[in-house]
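Example complex used in Figure S2.
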Amino acid sequence: MQLVECVPNFSEGRNRDIVDNIVASIQSVKGVKVLDREMDPDHNRSVVTFIAEPDKVGIAAFEGIRTAARLIDMTKHHGEHPRFGASDVIPFIPISDVTMKECIEISRKLGQKIGEELNIPVYMYGNSALLDVRRNLEDIRNKNFQYEELSKSIGDPKWKPDFGPSLMGTAGASIIGSREPLVAYNVNLNTTNLDIGKRIAKGLRAKDGGLTFVKSLAFFIKEKNMVQISMNLTNFSKTPIYRAFELVKLEAQRYGITISDSEVVGLVPMEAIVEASRYYLQLNSFKTDQILEVRMME
Amino acid sequence: MQLVECVPNFSEGRNRDIVDNIVASIQSVKGVKVLDREMDPDHNRSVVTFIAEPDKVGIAAFEGIRTAARLIDMTKHHGEHPRFGASDVIPFIPISDVTMKECIEISRKLGQKIGEELNIPVYMYGNSALLDVRRNLEDIRNKNFQYEELSKSIGDPKWKPDFGPSLMGTAGASIIGSREPLVAYNVNLNTTNLDIGKRIAKGLRAKDGGLTFVKSLAFFIKEKNMVQISMNLTNFSKTPIYRAFELVKLEAQRYGITISDSEVVGLVPMEAIVEASRYYLQLNSFKTDQILEVRMME
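Predicted assembly (596 residues):
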């Protein structure tokens, strides 16, 4: 089954009715599955996670964005998290049987539709960026440049939107794009020594000579009385889970420290788990469609 | 998603029309997915593999059995494989989110329906057996006791069917039951020495002091120029793939032989693959519903 994930961020984290309305709009599209929603009152921001087949995911996002534009007034919005608009950032993520190219197309088609039909200025970011300077989200919108600043600058050629008018309404602007799925992965060590943990975490990070698509930090976890290496794997196809796990093990060995266990936080694409079995069992020619449940989905 | 597999064997392996008709009856039930069908002309026998949710799987099997009873005449059937009836053996197998108990109930309910509505004598076997002596398929039907012999003996109290009449018609009798899923798993060794392969295969087998739910043989595979340990894992929940793999590796080590690769033949339940990742990554608390695709199926 072809599956795309979408994780839109909306600038409302306090009024449950408004968030319910937005989620209902997204869910009104048949075949869409809302997996999660998180409201953060301090940030005054909600994050919705949903999955759908490629032909549905953009339609569902459009419905959510339209409802958010109707119910959220950015001129009255305050919160700690930087934001551009009612529907702030909308990334599309390939999960299963879908290429990044398809996600780029979905996001750009949505950007154009939002610009033309809802008159909302749209900036394309990530893999979907049309301008290189708009590739990194932080280079577009940050603590020092958000809704209020963009409202003043949107007439500048530098801030001409990729789609939609050079004009800010109450819905503000949206940032639409695509990115790789992210796997939140922790390894717990049989030690309470945080200094050692920090050295291990450092050895894993790309900029310190570690693995390209790993972001890592070490924490002391009180409830476990253990040090945890907490990682974000930003491209599990290129830097798979097993490689990160084995490198933690390898680095821990020099201090005589063993691994207690590891954990995937939240959800993970099937391929990321299957690839670990493929590696350890040397199951090199195994195809995901040999899995019975996958056949059922087809 | 709750998923049950059913693998009915029909006593027709030469006439494609008849097999097409049987498969069409099975597929006529909504939500049923036929994964495979194999016709064997020598055995004059077909094996159909399908999956469905628990409330559908028995209905689909019933439709297939009804069509087989209509189109196959056992008085005219010849073939190498032992057989009791038009629909010969019908096992139900728990695949996902389903207990063996549920499969036993499905199979017994079907047995009763077949007996009452189609007037076919039914013997329950495997985990579904109502009599202990009918637990093993080979103790019911074998080379020396099949359709012809049962036709003569069905009046004996010993052969009183579990459901249906003590009377054989042109559809013969059916053997219905439930069993664990079977994983066909091979490990290829970097050696051409079949004697060593045989010793490794022996070390794996339950009766020779190996693993309880492993059946194993060693073959020389010409195309690969390698010895292969070919296994059937008859209960992967109790004897998981990783344990069989690691034991092959361990036994091979004493001869200085390494593993080239391993392979799953055909289809496999997701849980069997996930469990290997859980073991090697020490991902002890990982739940299958953390897999995005599984959420989509729910």
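Chain B has nine helices and eleven strands. Residues 100-118 of chain B form the longest helix (19 residues).
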